[in-house]
Specification:
CATH architecture of the largest domain: 3-Layer(aba) Sandwich
Distance between the termini: 46 Å
CATH superfamily of the largest domain: Periplasmic binding protein-like II
Largest sheet: 10 strands, mixed
Structural class: alpha+beta
Mean pLDDT: 93
Number of helices: 15
Number of domains: 2
Helix content: 25-40%
Length: about 500
């Protein structure tokens, strides 16, 4: 099967563009476009990458992870200590202001962590906080986090997914009120939040001194959500936007020919995947409940060709259901499935489907050619997949309700370099995204996250990876290579953790 690239035809579109201008440099406003609308900018109640990106501009965490070295550094906590009784003691920085002018305290930290760890809060990704028992105040400026189990990646979670909220304000306005008018203690404050349409940030002039994020150089971030990539690129060409990401790879060369634009690439920790309803959540008579059918799907999709010809830029095909650099991501433990459509057809016949079958295929992925390629591969062996293309949030909700027989999505692990940020999400007991519901697999995933013994963790995770791939539950397709396009007037650096840091950006 051969894949054909789509011609971008950007040169013709550029003819209608006004002469090069200074973007919004004069107004000191960076105009940013994202495709997926974020229904809730509170990171605790959002699992979208775009939501994570926005939150990191407006909120600070207890610790900071250096984007270049992954070294953990002080942030809202000035120091910390792990104790033998599975507790973590932190000293909270003094003099930090929230955007409403109130002073951050140990009470805010305790309140926020206990809210996130409380099952009644119904956070979007409970596994991010499942290691926390509770937080308690131990002094005017000290906090102790009691862990349910030894958690080697605790500081990574505190650095990436644990923003601190102001207790008094959030209790006053409630979760919905906070979502509408959020307040943090980060380098930017949110001054307009038209949920699902646009978010406007302004530099927080009282941001605490000596933060590793630094004082932002650009005064205003104007974020808009547009429904598709074509519209985003048109806005960029017309100079109504200054920054767009995840453009089609075949647009990079043409964009770089524009005298006022540039495009760059960066592999990220995000893994594209195909979830297969082995558990029969969409119906007990689902053909996908048969192992040979799932194995046929794995053999039917030419993942290497997709990585090399569609994603490009150095995209890789992970053998295991995780990102290769993550602790516990044991590629050697994974059962391998080379592209073999002949074998796929034979497996379908052995499973009782010599003529294939029809199935719904839910996706939010852009570009749409990626899901179309999977559809074509499946069609070639007799599986007639009907694509249901949705925006990100509706697709996630549909999958969580158990209504996605085949589901093409992606997972960036919140940029946490440990498989505890992906395996419990996809295979953990009670997880929304778990379409395998395999008790033995769930047990092994839990074991891997229940100890600080590295050898024991690796053993449990390797056994889990063997089962997950042997049963062909969840197919890793390729690693993402983000393509960023932005004004040449902008100085912007990319990082491998897929977290654009606009507070580091500046005008040239």
């Amino acid at each position: 099967m051969k894949l054909f690239r789509r011609s971008a035809l950007l040169a013709a579109a550029a003819m209608a563009v006004a002469p090069p201008a200074f973007a919004e440099k004069g107004a000191d406003s960076l105009r940013i476009l994202f495709n997926d609308a974020v229904p809730n900018v509170d990171m605790y109640f959002n699992s979208q990458r775009t939501g994570l990106i926005l939150a990191h501009q407006a909120w600070d965490m207890l610790v900071h992870r250096d984007p270049a070295t992954f070294e953990i550094k002080p942030s809202l906590a000035t120091d910390w200590k792990f104790n033998e009784d599975n507790t973590l003691d932190l000293t909270i920085r003094q003099g930090v202001k929230f955007h409403d002018g109130s002073t951050l305290s140990a009470d805010d930290v305790v309140y926020t962590i206990n809210m996130a760890a409380n099952p009644e809060s119904k956070v979007a990704t409970p596994s991010n906080y499942a290691w926390i028992d509770k937080a308690e105040k131990t002094g005017d400026h000290t906090v102790r986090i009691r862990m349910k189990k030894a958690t080697p990646a605790a500081l990574e979670y505190l650095a990436m997914v644990t923003p601190i909220h102001p207790k008094a304000y959030r209790e006053k306005v409630g979760a919905e009120g906070f979502s509408a008018k959020p307040i943090g203690a980060g380098p930017y404050k949110i001054v307009r939040n038209d949920q699902g349409k646009e978010v406007v940030f302004e530099r927080f002039e009282d941001y605490w001194k000596d933060s590793p994020k630094g004082r932002p150089a650009i005064k205003t971030l104007h974020v808009r959500f547009v429904p598709d990539l074509a519209t985003a690129v048109t806005e960029l060409l017309a100079q109504r936007a200054d920054w767009v990401w995840n453009i089609n790879p075949d647009q990079i060369e043409s964009i770089n020919k524009m005298p006022f634009l540039q495009a760059v690439r960066q592999e990220s920790m995000r893994v594209g995947y195909l979830s297969i309803d082995a558990a029969g959540r969409t119906g007990a008579d689902n053909p996908l409940t048969k192992q040979k059918v799932r194995q046929a799907i794995w053999h039917a999709v030419n993942r290497q060709e997709m990585a090399e010809k569609l994603i490009t830029g150095g995209s890789r095909v992970p053998a295991a259901p995780c990102f290769p650099s993550q602790f516990g991501c044991d590629a050697d433990a994974a059962v391998k499935y080379p592209y073999d459509p002949v074998k796929a057809k034979a497996l379908l016949a052995e499973a009782g489907f010599p003529n294939g079958f029809e199935i719904e295929f839910v996706t939010y992925v852009q570009p749409t050619q990626w899901s179309a390629a999977i559809q074509n591969y499946l069609q070639a062996v007799g599986i007639r997949a009907r694509i249901t293309q949705l925006q990100v949030a509706p697709a996630i909700q549909k999958a969580w309700r158990g209504e996605a027989p085949l589901y093409h999505g992606s997972w960036g692990s919140y940029s946490i370099n440990d498989v505890s940020a992906i395996l419990p999400v996809m295979f953990g007991a009670g997880a929304n995204d778990n379409y395998s519901r395999d008790p033995e697999l769930e047990k092994l995933v839990a074991q891997g996250g229940a100890t600080s013994d590295l050898a024991a963790r690796k053993k449990a995770y390797s056994a889990a990876i063997k089962i997950a791939t042997e049963q062909a539950y969840w197919m890793p397709l390729f690693t993402y290579v983000n393509a960023y396009a932005f004004s040449k007037q902008l100085e912007f650096k990319t990082y491998p953790d897929e977290l654009p840091r606009f507070y580091f950006a500046k005008w040239k």
